[in-house]
Specification:
Blueprint lengths: L4 E2 L4 E4 L6 E4 L8 E8 L10 E8 L5 E8 L5 H13 L8 E4 L5 H8 L4 E4 L1 H9 L7 H12 L4 H15 L4 H8 L16 H4 L3 H6 L1 H9 L6 H15 L12 H6 L3 E2 L2 E2 L4
Parallel strand pairs: 4-7, 7-8
Antiparallel strand pairs: 1-2, 2-3, 3-6, 4-5, 5-6, 9-10
Helix pairs in contact: 1-2, 3-6, 4-5, 9-10
């Protein structure tokens, strides 16, 4: 086991499996919302590019902190299972309320196995890009506008109507684009069951990608770490430095209602009878 690393707000330690990663110790603080992604980095002295498995959690006060930075070797179900099981071993007792990620992540299969109570939300930024990539350039501007109408609608009902309109418009000529949208339809609109003030955070994993933009820049400048372990440590340290600039969740006090399981419809909490 590697040496303990102490972050400003809570202790983190090296992962139990050959220093494969860094996991949060005080798990009681981060059982709310997770953003997950797999990010590849170059390593100068290794022929393979490690895929670091990243989970960022939202604390009850709305701040965001790394939950896990893990060397997954590759982005596989087995690697994600290793992360999730080690988090449980460290004391994670309750599943996060919501997990946000790209539809291509095998993270979802691991999450279903280990944290089946967690609601899933696919990233709309990734989904928009993937759908537009399957359309000719000439129709992309209008198609993009139609997609925006889905996730910017004030209610889930209107969002689904916009989704049906998109499918009807492009089904005949561009079936690959409509299938890309349809296959994740049941997990694209989960954010409507959470406070409207949180929608901009819950619709996308962009906060992770923007947070690690600084990390990517630094690793490019150094042409990657000299070894996998050096890359892991550098990414973790840079992430902790960038943490102070991460935007807090809007209206953080509403998280208390989410934790209690208050019923929320179209972003509005239902009043008690």
């Amino acid at each position: 086991m590697g040496p303990a690393l102490h972050a400003p707000r809570r202790a983190l330690r090296a992962g139990v499996a050959k220093n494969r990663g860094y996991l949060a110790v005080r798990m009681a603080e981060i059982g709310l919302n997770w953003g997950a992604d797999g990010i590849y980095f170059n390593v100068r002295l290794d022929t393979e590019r490690p895929c670091l498995l990243i989970i960022i959690g939202t604390l009850e006060d709305g701040t965001k902190e790394p939950v896990a930075v893990w060397d997954g070797i590759r982005e596989s179900k087995a690697s994600w299972l290793e992360v999730l099981r080690d988090l449980k071993a460290q004391g994670l007792q309750e599943s996060p309320k919501l997990a946000v990620g790209d539809g291509a992540l095998v993270f979802w299969a691991a999450l279903e196995e280990e944290q089946s109570e967690t609601r899933e939300q696919r990233c709309w930024v990734h989904k928009t890009s993937n759908v537009l990539d399957k359309l000719p350039r000439s129709v992309q501007p209008y198609a993009k506008k139609m997609i925006h109408e889905m996730y910017l609608s004030p209610t889930k009902e209107k969002a689904l109507i916009a989704c049906r309109r998109f499918l009807a418009e492009y089904e005949a000529k561009y079936p690959k684009a409509t299938e890309c949208l349809r296959k994740d339809e049941d997990v694209l609109f989960t954010f409507y069951d959470f406070p409207a003030e949180h929608w901009m955070h819950n619709r996308t994993t962009n906060p992770i990608e923007s947070a690690f933009a600084t990390v990517r820049h630094r690793t490019r400048q150094t042409k990657g770490g000299g070894s996998r372990q050096a890359t892991l440590i550098m990414v973790f340290k840079l992430a902790k430095q960038a943490e102070s600039h991460w935007r807090k969740l809007n209206s953080a006090p509403l998280l208390a209602h989410v934790i209690r399981g208050v019923i929320i419809t179209d972003g509005v909490m239902e009043k008690a009878a």
